Amino acid sequence: MTQNDKPAPLFLPVLFWCVGIALSRALVIPFIWQTIIALALFVLALFFKSGRIYLLLGICLLLGGMRWTVAQQPSALEEVFKTKSHIQQDSRFLVTNLISSKSNLYQIRLYEIAGIKNRENLLLYSDYKLNPGQQYSALLEIVPAETDAVLDMYPSLPRAYIRQNLKAEKMSKALFPIAIWRTKLLANLETKMGDEADFAKALLFSDISAKGKYRDELTRSGMIHLIVVSGLHIWFIYAICMIVLKAFFPPRLAELIFLILIIFYAALNYWAPPVLRSILMIGLMIIARWRNIPLGSSQLLALSMLIITAINPNQLFDIGLQLSFLCVGVILLGLPHIEWIKEKDIQASNIRNKVNNFFDLLLMNLVVGLAVMPLTLYYFGTASLNGIIGNILGIPLSGVILILSFLILVIPAVNLLSASLINSYRFLLYIFNYWTELVASIPFYLQNYWITSLQLAGCILLIIGGLSMLRKLRISWQKLIICLIGIVLIIVPQFLHPADKGIYLFNCGTGDCILISLNDGQSIMIDTGPYYRVSEKSWASQKLIPWLNRKNIKEIDWLLLTHLDSDHSGGFPDIVNSLPIKNIAVSDETISDQRWKEWENYGLLDKINIHCIEDTISYRIGEASLKFLHPAKYFFPATSNSSSLVVRMDYQGKRYLFTGDADINAEFYMLEHYPEELKADYLKAGHHGSKSSSSREFIRTVLPEEVWISVGRRNQWNFPHPEPMYNFQLYAESIRRTSEGTIYHSFTQKD
Predict the structure, then answer these.
(1) What number of helices (H) and strands (E) belong to the chain?
(2) What is the per-residue pLDDT across 195-239, written as a single tens digit (0 to 9) for each?
(3) E strands of 240-352, at which residues?
(4) What are phi and psi of 625, to 5 degrees?
(5) Tell me, what DSSP letter sits at residue 541?
(6) Which of 66, 209, 223, 355 would you call most buried, defined as having the most Cβ atoms within 10 angstroms of its Cβ?
(7) Which residues of 190-208 are buried (b: 16+ CB within 10 A; e: fewer)?
(8) CA distances from residue 229 to 122, 435, 499, 576, 665 in whole angstroms, order as listed
(9) Edge-first strand listing for the sheet containing 514-517
(10) Helix, strand or coil for residue 226?
């Protein structure tokens, strides 16, 4: 009996345990009801022997749900945030990780706040350079995690800002201060290898700040998994360590030493799920061998998943853990044993075995690549089959580079051996980068194509059914039904209606992006959100485009760019490159802008109908009427805000006024020339609630029922300002801000 063929009685129970965690997360079932049902199933299992296996699997499902429910108890900070919008207190904290060196973004572990002990992880935005591994004290302002109910799939960490009194404290007296060790080891690599240390830092310690310059090319090449500390790397390390340790120690002592060292290494990687999965599988394998317990690969995989999710069920939704377990599961359980070249074809056994091994490697790369595609499309909107070719050379290259990185780390710098290792590292890194660029040019790559959760479920069923038939090389009607259900789930969302009909004012920080989804299926977008100069990414690429794809919005009928300030037009290139736009409406000021001319030169405006608004004009879009009120022909703007488009939409008996960043000068011009056109039921406040807009006369004339303010929480300009807020409170019945989450206004359906 081979390692893979050994029985795995835990596999199905653990699978149901994980399904229970996922269901409990989605359905929020009270703990007491889960407990009652589990006890009832247990009693039934005692008396009904024939259905006992199904009842026990049901209990496993409920136990997973109960574990999730228990783990979701609110933290101390979350309890405070139920009554307060922010906390500002003297705090002590440890900097555990550098997330972005460009924006000084760190992950920290809070030790104490207002004299009260606390152990919570936060994201820290700092104006100062901080040292990972160092403890600090400061007056921190802490705000809840910015999680948007419409746009975000998962919550993030609460955010902290240093307000004053930053002071470095004494280093930790702990026996193994992980953050300090990690910082020193990363600095060691940087000292020895300079700028080329980034690859080694990412490879050995999954250093987030070091991955950036390699991420895009490796993603396109389908080899992004090679620049993180993956399970594959742990097996490399295991093989090397055992060769070295067994040369000096008896086998059992060598394995014990390895387990101690690898646990420390896992801590240095902050217990990353792929690392933890591999260590658990290796550790369980070693212990089972010591105890003469027969454990197959699938049993080891199931036990590892059970341990990880029992300790922290949130890990089940970590993309790293999902990809790690999926890849290993496919390799262990989904690959068939095929004799590609038979003895009658090639007599020489060495050559025949090598050819068969090569075809096995290609098949493994293909099957794993196809299996991970649904996850990468769901989370990142990207998928690459280039890794089928790329991994052939990429895996052995990264393995050797990993070994060299480790040796460079532990061997003193000033000697001939160290210099030789560094030169070898640089040479192999050059080859790896060249190979990556070559493979990335292969066209088997998808970008900006997100799938829905329903489609993801369909893909999973299709993978399960397809792999089970592939492994046995036999078709059965049960597996065909599973595959057909999967195909239906993949296809059905394509025929569902797009986003709910109404108006979305997206939570994009202090910027503007509005989507109007009309009842006849046409869509109007006003502005495209901000561009973040620090991260060099647009909000649209990170949030909006994935949401549009998941909502099955395939094109935009009208895009209105109010003006070209980056907080309004920052996402335009990404949106144009991601989905078709039929019409664009802009002012003549925009068309004369240099950035617009650059977009023309880049071909971004090809095949789009351009409507230049030079004076008041109306357009009919289905049952909606768009009336552009500003800029007018004889208005001469002093700033880009003055020339901002102002448009009123009349739809289903209601008026909606969108003012972009129009300032008081534009407002006074409209009040003087056509005040009767300004009356509206709903008003999108000008310039994010700045005092440069929303004069009292203007708001009194509009007289809106509801005011919408597009503004970021605790922004640097302190928007919205008190003056316009006072005017809104005088004349509007309600005020809503995007800082509290994306605003959704539903259209009343006609009879």
Answers:
(1) 26, 23
(2) 889 889 888 888 876 666 777 888 889 887 777 666 777 888 888
(3) none
(4) -115, 130
(5) I
(6) 223
(7) bebbeeebbbbbbbbbbbb
(8) 23, 20, 39, 36, 57
(9) 609-613, 581-587, 556-560, 523-526, 514-517, 502-505, 743-746
(10) helix
